[in-house]
Design goal:
29% of the residues lie in helices and 26% in strands.
Length: 187
């Protein structure tokens, strides 16, 4: 999408990012805003812009925010996720990707891939992260195939998965990219 820009969010982007997230909860997920799950959306500034190890990435078309991707320093919470996932991806050393959403009219144009690439670069360059983790709702059309091209499955929590019981969730890990300053000769 040549006319779209993918970049780190600014305070001016936050109302549009919040609207996209809320629309996604209602239209795509079908359950709306759940305060316990979506507390970060209430305070995007404090959750992502003011925290040095977190970030919010947006895709913008003109002045409209049409995509979001966030990074925070938390792993999967137990409960509701299995204890072994919380132990594998501990808070502070895990960069969790979340809020990877693109407006329906702009999907399948590579925007999510571009946002995820920038999020992974942030996680690598920020320092202190050992792993990049995410989980996805497989009921959302296109979500699971996208992540299967991007990440490695580590646990299928769906009731039909070999490990069941669970919900329509699959957990993934993205291999940490090499740090830009790690390559090349040393003095």
């Amino acid at each position: 999408h040549a006319h779209c820009q993918v970049r780190y969010a600014t305070p001016n982007d936050l109302p549009g990012a919040r609207a996209l997230m809320l629309d996604t909860f209602h239209q795509d997920f079908g359950y709306g805003f759940v305060p316990h799950w979506h507390a970060d959306v209430v305070d995007l500034q404090g959750s992502y812009l003011d925290h040095p190890r977190h970030t919010l990435i947006v895709a913008v078309h003109g002045d409209e925010v049409i995509g979001t991707t966030a990074v925070n320093s938390s792993g999967p919470a137990h409960p509701p996720h299995p204890r072994h996932m919380a132990e594998r991806f501990p808070c502070d050393s895990t960069a969790q990707l979340l809020r990877v959403y693109v407006r329906a009219a702009h999907r399948r144009l590579g925007l999510a891939r571009r946002m995820v690439d920038l999020a992974c670069a942030f996680a690598t360059e920020e320092g202190g992260y050992n792993r990049i983790y995410l989980h996805t709702n497989t009921d959302i059309p296109g979500a699971e195939p996208f992540w299967r091209k991007t990440a490695e499955e580590v646990f299928d929590a769906r009731p039909t998965g070999e490990h069941g019981p669970g919900v329509s969730t699959v957990h993934f890990e993205i291999p940490m990219p090499a740090r830009a300053d790690a390559a090349g000769p040393t003095a």
